[in-house]
Amino acid sequence: MPTLLSRADRIYVSGHLGMVGSAIVRQLQQNGFENILTATRAEVDLCDQQAVDYWFADARPDYVIHVAGKVGGIHANAAYPADFMYDNLMIQATVLRSALNHSVNKLLYLGSSCIYPRECPQPIREEYLLTSPLEPTNEAYALAKITGLKSCQYYRQQHGCNFISAMPTNLYGPRDNFDPQSSHVLPALIRKFHEAKAESGQKVSVWGSGNACREFLHVEDLACACLFLLENYEAETPINVGTGQEISIANLAKLVQEIVAPATELQFDASKPDGTPRKLLDVSRLHKLGWHHTTQLRDGIQSTYQWFLENLQAAVSAPKR
Ligand SMILES: NC(=O)c1ccc[n+]([C@@H]2O[C@H](COP(=O)([O-])OP(=O)(O)OC[C@H]3O[C@@H](n4cnc5c(N)ncnc54)[C@H](OP(=O)(O)O)[C@@H]3O)[C@@H](O)[C@H]2O)c1
Fold first, then answer.
1. For ligand 1, is residue 321 a contact (CB within 6 Å)?
2. Substitution candidate for ligand 1 out of 16, 71, 84 with most atoms within 8 A of CB
3. To test the ligand 1 pocket, which listed residue (12, 13, 14, 19) has its Cβ within 8 A of the most ligand atoms?
4. Residues with catalytic annotation?
5. Cα 277 to the chain's mean position, in Å?
6. Is any ligand 1 atom within 6 A of the Cβ of residue 168?
7. Most buried among 120, 169, 197, 210, using CB within 10 Å?
C-alpha cells in the first residue's frame, strides 16, 4: 500500500544545509509541500537527545527524512574514527527515538553504498550487507551507519514503526565538497581542471591507472528517489539508490576535462592506488518499483560546474572534515 502524502503534511528534513538535505528541501518545495521543517545545528544539536525531543514535541513532524550525518573523505575517516562513530551513532539514535516518542507516521533513513563489505560481488545487491569484512579506512563510519539501518529494522519489529532506509551510491551536485584534502573523486576533478584551465597546456594528474570503475548519481535524482520511496517503499530491507551504470575513472576524467578545461593535458599517475576495481549498485529492486534516474552524467557535471562557478568563494573555501 503506498503512503499517501498530503501537501500539508509536516515533513522534517534533518541536515538541510548539506548537499543532500538541501536537494531534498528543493525537491519537496518543487512538489508543492507547504510544511517543510528544518533546524540548524545551532537550533538543535542532533547529538543531544533532550534537545531533539523538545524540538519534536514543538515541531510535530508527520514524516522524517533523516539525512544529517558526519560525512568525510578517507583522511578524515582515518584520522577521526571515534568522532565518526560517536556523531553518527548519536545523530541517528536521538532522531529515531524522538520519531518513536512523537508517533511520526514514517521515517526514511539514509545509509550509503560505502558501508557494504570491501570485497562485495558486483553489482552490489542489498543482501550483501554484513556478509564479509568492511573497508578498514571507513570502518567506524560504516559500523555507525549500519547500526542506523539495523535500528530502523528493530524499531519496526519492536514498536511497529514505519521506518525505512535507502542506500545511495556516490553522489555529486550543488553544495558538494570541493576541498582537495577531503573531497570525493568527481568534485576533486572539477576543482583540479578548473584551477588548471587558466594556463593552456597545463598538465592535470589523476591518481591511479584510470581503470577503476565507479557509479555516480546526481543529488537532485537522489532527492527525487527519496520522495518516491517515502511514498512507495514499505519494506524493512534497505533499498539501493543509484543509476546502475558505471564509468571508468579515465573516462570520467576525460568528461570533466572536456566540460571544464579542454585545453589541459590529462595524465594518470599509476604509482598511486586505484582502490576497489568496481563499485556498482544493483538497482533492480528500485527499477521494479518504477523509479529511474533522469540526469545524464554529462548534464549533471555541466550543471554542477555551473554551480561551482556561481558559488566559487563558498565552494573553494568551505572545507569539510
Ligand atoms: N555525499 C555522498 O556522496 C553520500 C553518499 C551516500 C550517502 N550519503 C549520506 O547522505 C547524508 C548527507 O550527506 P551530505 O553529503 O549531504 O553531507 P553534508 O553535506 O556534510 O551534510 C550533513 C548535514 O548534517 C548536519 N549535521 C551533522 N551533524 C549534526 C549535528 N550534530 N546536529 C545537527 N546537524 C548536524 C550538518 O550540519 P552543519 O551544516 O551544521 O555541518 C549538515 O547540514 C549522510 O547521512 C550520508 O551518509 C552521502
1. no
2. 71
3. 19
4. 141
5. 21
6. yes
7. 169
Ligand 1 center from residue 69 Cα (angstroms): 4
Number of domains in the chain: 1
Per-residue pLDDT of the chain (321 residues; tens, 9 = 90+): 788 899 999 999 999 999 999 999 999 999 999 999 999 999 999 999 999 999 999 999 999 999 999 998 778 888 999 999 999 999 999 999 999 999 999 999 999 999 999 999 999 999 999 999 998 888 999 999 999 999 999 999 999 999 999 999 999 999 999 998 888 899 999 999 999 997 777 999 998 999 999 999 999 999 999 999 999 999 999 999 999 999 999 999 999 999 999 999 999 999 988 888 899 999 999 999 999 999 999 999 999 999 999 999 999 885 554
Among 292, 217, 215, 277, smallest CA distance to 246 is for 215
Ligand 1 neighbour 83 (Cβ under 6 A)? no
Residue 255: in which H helix or E strand, if any? helix 249-260
**Residue 13 phi/psi, 5° resolution?**
-110, 110
CATH number reported for the structural domain that contains residue 240 in this entry: 3.40.50.720
Nearest residue (CA) to ligand 1, atom 36: 15
Reference 220, options 281, 186, 252, 175; nearest CA is 175
Q: Tell me, yes or no, whether 178 lies in a domain.
A: no
Q: Is the preceding peptide bond at 81 cis, omega within 30 degrees of 0?
A: no
* Residue 41 covered by a domain: yes
150: left (phi over 0), alpha (psi -120 to 50) or beta: alpha
The DSSP element (H or E) to which 171 belongs, if any, is strand 170-172
Range of the domain at 227: 10-173+216-244+280-294
Domain assignment present for 275: no
Tell the burial category of 289 from Cβ atoms under 10 Å away from its Cβ (0-12, 13-18, 19+). middle
